[in-house]
Amino acid sequence: MSRILWKLLATTPALALGVSSGVYAAEANSSLLQLTPGELNSAPTSLTTLPAQPTTNLAQSLPAMRSSPSVSSLEADPLAGTLAPAAPSTQPQTQSAIGSRAQQSIPQVTSVSQLSDVNPTDWAYQALASLVEKYGCIAGYPDGTFRGNRAATRFELAAALNACLDVISDRFATKEDLAAVQRLAQEFASELAVIKGRVNNLEARTSNLEATQFATLTKLAGNIVINTSDVLGGQRANPPGPGGVNTAGPNIVDNLIVSSRTRLNFDTSFTGTDLLRIRLQAGNIVNYSSITGTNAGRLAYDGDSGNTFQLQKLFYRFSPIKNLTVFADANAGQWEDNTFTFNPYFSSGETGALSRFGRFNPIYRIYANSAAGVTFNYKFAENKQAGTSVDFTLGYLGGGTNTTAPGGVTFDRSPGNPSPPGGFIGDSYSALAQFNVRPVKSLALGVTYVRAFGVDPSGGTGTSGYPGSANNPTASAALSGGVGNVASDNFGFQFTYLVIPQFTLSGWVGYSSVNQPQGGPVTGRNASLLNWAITAAAPDLWQKGDVAGLIFGQPPQTISTNYTLAGNPNITPFNTYHLEGFYRFQLSRNISLSPGIISIFNPNNNSANAPIVLGVVRTTFQF
């Protein structure tokens, strides 16, 4: 008997495996889907949570570029909104695994050769072979491994020893053996009693959870953003004046604003690898373009529903074949949710950049409101060891409502169709193609093309509010927003580079060629838009989870146009600049505080306007 005990001790790192595997497997199969974070919005993506962002290979292959605890149920994944089932725990069970239930769930190992990670050269090979083949009281993990290098606790030793002795005592025990067993049982009596109590408590809590859980397949997660902001200085952005004569707008008189936004995500998985998301949202965060006179000053998370909950998003993500991920959007489809945006620390509206422009290239915002569609992401190649990969994304978002001009006149929204029927095909649309490559582990590159019709080519950022602005580049003033029958070809280049683990550089450049093919008050007009930015992120400066961020660039602005009208504004290309700095304090796993400053120089391409400065403090709660 003493030899048996010595062999059992020699294999201590995995003693509990033989009796734990059955319950482990049963519990893993019945557990709820665990989701990591995205918001879906991207990076900081996480309920310390969905990259989040679509499950593109590039996002998954940048582990060092994670955004700290963030939104929804998104974990520190550079891709905001990425949600995936968590791997089951590999820690062996203790007392709960003891009994015939375990023996029935996992067949007993009859030969040491059945354990894939045990080799004849291992120092405890003979002892383990004897326990497995002679005494039959050691099994292994459900995946056929033994994991002999793993340390074991006294609790695990007590549980495994007790189960093993139950197997061998009737067949091999002598009087001396039984006396030794009795001494061991007395020595571990207190530990076994504690384990039994813990198991009984867990069984009671599990039964209560099963009886009161929200749903067997659905997980509820969400976040609350509380915004405190004020315009610290500047003048309301006047448009450029005709004939080269520019005038400044009036000084902005603004009060301190405290507002909020709440998101509730109902995430359901039917297979463990798919995701059905239903999002409800309510908020009252002001759109600062109404105060500053320019879209360049908008916040990353603005939106006002009068604090009434609305269906903000509905999509289903699944993988029909290996390496292919499909996103089916039924409501409010967004490119930033379906592809990698190359700005991992800034892409999340909850924990990333404070401004709308600073989150990512505005090319990802060129889509119609309430659009529906489908997006495909295919991973061509991946070398996990080298950290290299190649991905391709292709998608279409269509639908929305026709633009109505003043007086109730609805202009054509579909080329060749004077009476557009609307819907998925006949209304405004946006089609995207993106190629992602990661040539080395620390660098990711991407090129993007978006073809759009009836959609604001500036993505709700940049200069606005006058003929020739980025959101009205062909000066179709008779149309609401100036995009009712405007077509655009949009090109983007993005990169992100991990310089060192504590410093990441990202950036982009975007170019749009806009034309008005037919319909409306004018035809044949065209214009060119440009934007670019460089972002720098320094994570974990003060404590783990903190991020210091700096953004500098030029939001979308018209750099050339062919139209000439009376009162044509004097547009100065490359004139508006955006500078933003913030620091995110990760106060706890679920709470972050992000104070920062947003400055807009020469807003609306008018150098007579004083810089607009916004002070912002964003507090994010995740649950």
TrEMBL record:
Keyword S-adenosyl-L-methionine: no
Regions annotated as coiled coil: 185-212
Signal peptide: 1-25
Entry's Gene Ontology molecular function annotations: porin activity
InterPro entries: Carb-sel_porin_OprB, Cell_Envelope_Struct_Comp, Por_som-like, SLH_dom
Region (Disordered): 81-102
Pfam families, per the entry: OprB, SLH
Polar residues bias locations: 88-102
SLH domain ranges (all copies): 111-175
GO cellular component: membrane
GO terms of biological process kind: carbohydrate transport
UniProt KW keywords: Coiled coil, Signal
Highest taxon above the source species: Bacteria
Similarity annotation: Belongs to the OprB family.
Protein name: Iron uptake porin
Organism name: Pseudocalidococcus azoricus BACA0444
